[in-house]
Amino acid sequence: MTLPTDRPAGLLELLAQAELDLPPGIEAHPSQIGVFCDDCGHTELHDYIVNTGMTRAERLDVARRHLVEQDGWSCTPGLDLCPPCHRARP
């Protein structure tokens, strides 16, 4: 399955694409995950596609990776910082 490029993909298309590489018995599903800025308390809450074979930590890592790559967050094992707080650090 190839996702459309001329319009945003729908949830069913995203789920079908995510399940292509999963082993039998593992299913993809949407999950709302929030990442909390450890400095100011701001929380980014978004829906992500995860799967039933992931641990809680792995699901949180999906959200953290997205925020780092797309929104300018700094996420390390010990500290999650939103862009303004990350820029304010020396």
Description:
- The protein is built from three helices and four strands; from the N terminus they run αββαββα.
- The chain has helices spanning 11-19, 56-71, 83-88, and strands at 28-36, 43-51, 74-76, 79-81.
- The chain has one domain (11-88).
- It is of the alpha+beta class and 90 residues long.
- The protein is 34% helix and 27% strand.
- It is elongated.
- The relative contact order is 0.16.
- The strands form two sheets. A two-stranded antiparallel ribbon has the order 1-2. Strands 3-4 form a two-stranded antiparallel ribbon.
Tell me, what's the shape?
elongated
Got a strand count? Answer: 4
**Biggest sheet: strand arrangement:** 1-2
Average pLDDT figure: 86
The helical percent reads 25-40%
Instruction: Please give the largest β-sheet.
Output: 2 strands, antiparallel
Query: Approximately what portion of the residues adopt beta-strand conformation?
Result: 25-35%
- What is the CA–CA distance across the termini? 45 Å
Radius of gyration over all CA atoms, rounded: 15 Å
User: How many H/I helical runs?
Assistant: 3
Going by helix content, strand content and strand pairing, the class is: alpha+beta
**How many domain regions?**
1
Provide the succession of SSEs: HEEHEEH
Low-confidence stretches: none
Salient structural properties:
single chain, about 90 residues, alpha+beta, two-stranded antiparallel sheet, two-stranded antiparallel ribbon, 3 helices, elongated
Strand and helix map with partners:
Elements: H1 11-19, E1 28-36, E2 43-51, H2 56-71, E3 74-76, E4 79-81, H3 83-88
Antiparallel strand pairs: 1-2, 3-4
